[in-house]
TrEMBL record, chain A:
Gene Ontology molecular function: NADH dehydrogenase (quinone) (non-electrogenic) activity; NADH dehydrogenase (ubiquinone) activity; quinone binding
Domain of life: Bacteria
Residues that span the membrane, as ranges: 61-79, 91-111, 117-137, 149-170, 190-213, 225-243, 255-274, 286-305, 311-332, 353-375, 387-408, 428-450
A GO cellular component entry from the record: plasma membrane
Location(s) in or outside the cell: Cell membrane; Endomembrane system; Membrane
Protein name: NADH-quinone oxidoreductase subunit N
Binding partners and assembly: NDH-1 is composed of 14 different subunits. Subunits NuoA, H, J, K, L, M, N constitute the membrane sector of the complex.
Domain NADH:quinone oxidoreductase/Mrp antiporter transmembrane: residue ranges: 113-403
Species for this entry: Flavobacterium agri
Recorded catalytic activity of this chain's protein: a quinone + NADH + 5 H(+)(in) = a quinol + NAD(+) + 4 H(+)(out)
Topology with respect to the bilayer: Multi-pass membrane protein
From TrEMBL, chain B:
One cellular-component annotation, GO: endomembrane system
Designated name of the protein: NADH-quinone oxidoreductase subunit M
Domain of life, source organism: Bacteria
Keyword Membrane among UniProt keywords: yes
Domain NADH:quinone oxidoreductase/Mrp antiporter transmembrane residues, every copy: 122-404
Gene Ontology terms for molecular function: NADH dehydrogenase (ubiquinone) activity; NADH dehydrogenase activity; ubiquinone binding
Subcellular location: Endomembrane system; Membrane
Residues that span the membrane, as ranges: 72-91, 103-121, 127-147, 159-179, 199-219, 231-251, 257-281, 293-312, 324-342, 363-384, 396-416, 437-456
Membrane topology: Multi-pass membrane protein
Length: 456, 478
């Protein structure tokens, strides 16, 4: 609860700073304040609190995921300063919208009531619609914002409909009560229809196949920093919320449901990877790679009772690698028209550190040892084997192989091609964010149990 | 002092070399020699029957140990690695290397990963080292290789994806074993009693990784192109040491964990190996590129080694290990000879060579010795290995050694033909300076090793035999 209050407070303060003409201080202040919030959040670890008639329930799950979201937001805000240096609109808008987005994200993992969940998802989505369309004079950004808004509001509608049906079936929004009811009585079929609708909506939000069509266009068209937000932070948020919904309501038990998840998961991996192979635009490529990672993360739902730690670990590994990759992409495509792969040519010679960061990030996503991505995949595989889904693991293994193909396209461009242009000065923030996130990634790669055991 | 000291030395060497600027080569060589010294010191400890293994907890959940083997087999492979590393680094000193600090750091890092692979006694740790070895060689081949950049890229990426793909199947096997045993320690994994079906799938999972790495036909298609495109130091690392990772792993992991499958399908896998030797030899006959010819000869040799390893007899396995070591030295020597010619003629086409003998008698005699050693002339180390493997094969089926022995005949044919075309004939109009001291020393050391162990293989045999007997004890239980 304190976390949510603190975050909202920071968002409001950002806007006040603009009025007080402290524009330069906004980004540093926000970073420091978020670090403080991180401390507040972590101090709640190990306890269970409920607030406002169970509207908000904080436990280890919500604390761990909130901490991850805050860390990701710190990185994203730190990158904002440079990204919006030329924009005419005020930077406080962009930063505070990101902070409000974070508030929505935290609400989405610490809800105790479906109405609070919906509130969270709407706060998050609306912030994203604005961010996607935030380059007002760029037609692609407008297109992305419009597309995302139309599709996203559809999904929100479906989720809301699902929630209504669940309310109709159970007579309550409180997930604790719903969970108790599912255990005892004969369930009305409205409940299951509600769950299905909820699932569809959430699959849309995490961009799983076949609900992924919006993702590539929106990712490509949005300003790059927004793409970074979408592909790291919000993807992880949606996945965590989905997991919490299903575990919270005891809703996933049936065999058929798991089959559906399995099909969606395999389809997401495969379609995401195969489409990614064909892309020449780095952002689009990462969008499709994100779809395939969503497929991987869905695997945690097959062994839902004990996979929260694995999900947290996979999400951290993926999102940190994503942040590092985007820090480099943001630098490389700073003043470029597009984000095509040829922009990365020769980066290994001109900017060896940034090239190494991007290489490490891609290797982590591909699942090469010592990076956290490898361990995440391994934990996921062994858990899924344990749950008895060998076919699933074989599909995942094959997909990991395919993914190497496109990740290496970027690596090859950086190290084998020659650069066509002069290197410009790199603001120190890109180094800081890139190197720091990769170091955290390697650190949790070397000590995975630290993260995995956060949620028992 | 235990075996982890070698890993620490090599890793520290990597970091120091990375920041040592122009002196990188010498710094790296110094660390390589230090690692060699450490392994020799460990060898004396090992011979005095002291425990040089290492066991520590790395993670509680999942249970993963930092466990390193201290037995003869591992130590022999580590000695192979640490003695070849300085030779490989020293061999590059005669030619200009761009960006030396990263180049030598990558070589040392590669050494680190390979030594780790040979030492690891925990499956998970082993897998990490196994994959880690792929990254440095990828960059070495990509950035310092030769030939057309586009083709090189294609070859290297193919190599990476191929081996990575194989490894993932091994990872899946390990994941399955973990759910059974609760940890990854080799002792516990081989003590599991798995059903025939389980063993079959696990055996296949491992096989995917090893057959690609070794390589056995039909999984060898990455090999020739990568050998040709990689810089000579990279080719030496690949052929001299990295291939042995696959062969070593067959002995260390595949046979003890799935002994029943190994026994049931023994013939099939021996045939795979022998088919590789014949195929490799025949293709080598037709090669016009010196490095490619050596690549295919290497394919032929490792096929025979793999066949020996799958015989599940003491002789077969012992021969395989001996041959692994001797092949490591001889192939490094041969690739170095190719490099010596390249430094002077800037070509690897055999047809553009010839008539070198007149101009460079010292080089000719050394090259001749290496060629003879590679075709297993008696009194060279390779003879000991090859003969033991063939003897092991004969206890399975008499046709195996007969077919496998073809490699010696075919090998003699293509190697001597190559020698004839490269070195003999009318005097070449292009000048060929005889070898420098640095080049002579490199080849001299290799030749000395080959002869010493050819005449007196007992130290190595004594060292590896107990480990081999232990590995085979798992298959004898059946």
């Amino acid at each position: 609860m304190n976390t949510l209050l603190a975050i909202t407070g920071i968002g409001v303060l950002c806007l006040l700073f603009e009025i007080a003409n402290l524009r330069k201080a906004i980004v540093p202040f926000t970073v420091v304040a978020l670090l403080g919030t991180l401390g507040i959040t972590l101090s709640d670890y190990g306890t269970v609190h409920s607030h406002y008639n169970n509207m908000i329930v904080t436990n280890n799950f919500s604390v761990s995921f909130s901490a991850l979201f805050i860390v990701l937001t710190i990185f994203l805000v730190a990158l904002s300063g440079d990204f919006y240096r030329k924009t005419e609109a005020k930077i406080s808008d962009f930063v505070s919208i990101k902070i409000f987005l974070l508030a929505g994200a935290v609400a989405m993992v610490s809800f105790g009531n479906l109405s609070m969940f919906f509130l969270g998802i709407e706060v998050l989505s609306i912030s994203l619609y604005i961010l996607a369309a935030s380059q007002r004079l760029n037609i692609r950004s407008n297109e992305a914002g419009m597309k995302y808004f139309l599709m996203g509001s559809f999904a929100s509608g479906i989720i809301l409909f699902g929630i209504c049906l669940i309310y109709g079936a159970m007579g309550t929004f409180d997930i604790q009560e719903i969970s108790e009811l599912t255990g005892s009585a004969e369930l009305p079929e409205w409940f299951f229809i509600g769950i299905v609708l909820l699932t569809i909506g959430m699959l849309f939000k995490i961009a799983a196949v076949p609900f992924h069509f919006w993702a590539p266009d929106v990712y490509e068209g949005s300003p790059t920093l927004t793409t970074a937000v979408m592909s790291t932070l919000t993807k992880v948020v949606a996945m965590a919320a989905f997991y919490k919904l299903l575990t919270g309501m005891n809703a996933n038990i049936s065999y058929e449901y798991e089959m559906v998840i399995m099909v969606v998961s395999i389809a997401s991996m495969t379609v995401g990877n195969i489409m990614a192979l064909r892309q020449t635009n780095a952002k689009r490529m990462l969008a499709f790679s994100g779809i395939s990672h969503a497929g991987f993360m869905l695997m945690t739902l097959l062994n839902i009772t004990s996979s929260a730690g694995t999900l947290l670990y996979y999400a951290s590994a993926y999102a940190l690698a994503g942040i590092a990759a985007f820090a480099v992409i943001l630098y490389v495509c700073r003043d470029k028209e597009n984000e095509d792969i040829y922009n990365f040519n020769g980066l290994g010679k001109t900017r060896p550190v940034l090239a190494a960061v991007l290489t490490a990030a891609l290797l982590s996503m591909a699942g090469i040892p010592i990076f956290a991505g490898f361990f995440a995949k391994f934990a996921l595989f062994s858990q899924t084997i344990k749950a008895g889904y060998l076919v699933m693991v074989i599909a995942a293994v094959i997909n990991s192989i395919i993914s190497v193909g496109y990740y290496f396209k970027l690596i090859l461009a950086m190290y084998t091609k020659d650069s066509t242009e002069e290197a410009t000065k790199v603001p120190v923030v890109f180094y800081a964010v890139g190197v720091l996130s990769i170091l955290i990634n390697i650190a949790i790669g070397l000590y995975p149990s630290f993260v995995i055991n956060l949620i028992k | 002092m235990d075996v982890s000291i070698i890993l620490i030395l090599l890793l520290a060497g990597t970091l120091v070399t990375l920041f040592s600027g122009k002196a990188a080569g010498k710094v790296a060589l110094a660390f390589g020699l230090l690692a060699l010294g450490a392994s020799v010191a460990l060898l004396t400890k090992f011979n005095a029957h002291q425990n040089i293994g290492c066991l520590g907890v790395w993670m509680e959940n999942p249970q993963i140990y930092f466990a390193l083997n201290g037995d003869g087999l591992s130590l022999a492979m580590v000695l192979l690695t640490t003695s070849l590393l300085p030779i490989i680094m020293y061999s590059t000193f005669g030619s200009e290397v761009k960006n030396p600090s990263s180049f030598y750091a990558l070589i040392l890092f590669m050494g680190f990963a390979m030594v780790g692979t040979f030492l690891a006694a925990d499956g998970f740790l082993y897998y990490i080292f196994w994959e880690l070895a792929l990254i440095p060689i990828y960059f070495i081949a990509l950035n310092w290789g030769n030939g057309d950049a586009k083709e090189r890229q294609k070859a290297v990426v193919k190599f990476f994806i191929y081996t990575f793909a194989g490894s993932l199947f091994m990872l899946a096997s390990f994941a399955y074993l973990y759910t059974k045993a609760g940890n990854f320690l080799i002792g516990n994994l081989s003590a599991l009693s798995l059903s025939a079906d389980e063993q079959f799938w696990i055996f296949l999972g491992f096989f995917a990784a090893y057959a690609i790495k070794i390589p056995l036909i039909p999984f060898h298609t990455w090999q020739a192109a990568v050998y040709q495109k990689a810089p000579t130091a990279g080719t030496m690392l690949l052929s001299g040491i990295m291939l042995k990772m696959g062969l070593y792993s067959v002995l260390r992991w595949q046979l003890p964990i799935a002994p029943y499958a190994a026994k049931t399908f023994m013939t099939i896998f021996i045939v795979f190996g022998i088919a590789g030797t014949i195929y490799g030899s025949i293709v080598a006959l037709r090669q016009k590129d010196l490095k490619k010819l050596l690549a295919y000869s290497s394919l032929a040799h490792v096929g025979l080694i793999a066949a020996g390893a799958y015989t599940l007899t003491v002789d077969g396995l012992r021969g395989a290990v001996l041959q692994m070591i001797s092949h490591g030295f001889v192939i490094v020597g041969l690739f170095f000879a190719a490099e010596v010619i390249f430094r002077r003629y800037q070509t690897r086409e055999i047809s553009e060579m010839g008539g070198i003998r007149v101009q460079a008698p010292k080089f000719t005699s050394m090259f001749m010795i290496l060629v003879l050693a590679s075709v297993a002339l008696p009194s060279t180390f390779n003879f000991v290995g090859e003969f033991t493997v063939l003897y092991g094969l004969s206890s399975i089926n008499i046709w195996f050694p007969i077919l496998g022995g073809l490699t010696i005949i075919l090998g003699a044919y293509y190697m001597l033909k190559m020698f004839q075309n490269v070195m003999l004939g009318e005097a070449n109009p292009k000048p060929f300076a005889d070898i420098t001291f640095q080049e002579g020393l490199t080849m001299g050391v290799i030749i000395a090793v080959l002869f010493f162990f050819g005449l007196y293989p007992k130290p190595i045999v004594d060292m590896i035999t107990p480990s081999i007997e232990q590995i085979l004890s798992y298959t004898h239980k059946l």
